[in-house]
């Protein structure tokens, strides 16, 4: 079974399925997409016209699978070693899916808003939108801190889809809205960073970290 994975090593949403891939030991053929390169961009648009990664192509079935959550669910359906990422218990599975959505929509997306604003030229920035994004992340922190209390992993005792979503979300969000007094979330992020699958993702992304805009672009 051959899987082609279109992604960029620095992109937070691309990290999520990669963690699942490394957790399950799924062999993939990674293809780094450079949207700044016309040929790379054209090749990717031929695969997925919306031009957003990650995208998984299952060479055996011919299926093209976009969206980070859908990729993980697809792997869990197709491969026994990935099935554990989707908890069997209905209540826990629902919790994992809910947390996946929270980490994506209320942590990762606001983080990307803040980071994206940093590279905008002066006069085209959105201070109101950035302020709202910071507040969304702080709200997520306040909600997540007690919800995850007492759990070794996000949804339960077992590493799951929710943790694949949490790892990139908290890693990058901590850079723009530090976890600060949220000791429980900080400890959880530390456990994620120590997880071999996530440590590998971080190590493979390291050569690209200089591209992350730590501060707003100069005016």
Offer a concise description of the structure.
With 219 residues, the protein is α+β, with helices and mostly antiparallel strands. The protein is built from 8 helices and 4 strands; from the N terminus they run E-H-E-H-E-E-H-H-H-H-H-H.
Tell me, rounded to a whole number, the average pLDDT.
94
Number of H/I helices: 8
Please indicate the count of domains.
2
Kindly state the percentage of residues in helix. Answer: 55-70%
Structural class label:
alpha+beta
In angstroms, what is the radius of gyration? 17 Å
What's the total number of strands?
Answer: 4
Give the name of the CATH architecture of the largest domain.
Answer: Up-down Bundle
Mind telling me the CATH class of the largest domain?
Answer: Mainly Alpha
Strands of the widest sheet, in order across it, are 2-1-3-4
Share of β-strand residues: 5-15%
Uncertain parts: none
> Mind summarizing the main beta sheet?
4 strands, mixed
Distance between the termini: 50 Å
How do the SSEs run, as a string of H and E?
A: EHEHEEHHHHHH
CATH third-level topology of the largest domain:
Glutathione S-transferase Yfyf (Class Pi), Chain A, domain 2
Question: How is this structure best described in words?
Answer:
This protein is of the alpha+beta class and 219 residues long. The protein has two domains: 3-85, Glutaredoxin; 90-195, Glutathione S-transferase Yfyf (Class Pi), Chain A, domain 2 (Up-down Bundle), CATH 1.20.1050. 56% of the residues lie in helices and 8% in strands. It has helices spanning 12-24, 38-47, 68-78, 90-118, 127-148, 161-176, 183-194, 196-205, and strands at 3-7, 28-32, 55-58, 63-66. A four-stranded mixed beta sheet has the order 2-1-3-4, with helices on both faces. A hairpin with a 4-residue loop joins strand 3 (55-58) and strand 4. Helix 4 (90-118) runs antiparallel to helix 5 (127-148). The protein is globular, with a radius of gyration of 17 Å. The N and C termini lie far apart (50 Å). The model has no long low-confidence stretch (mean pLDDT 94).
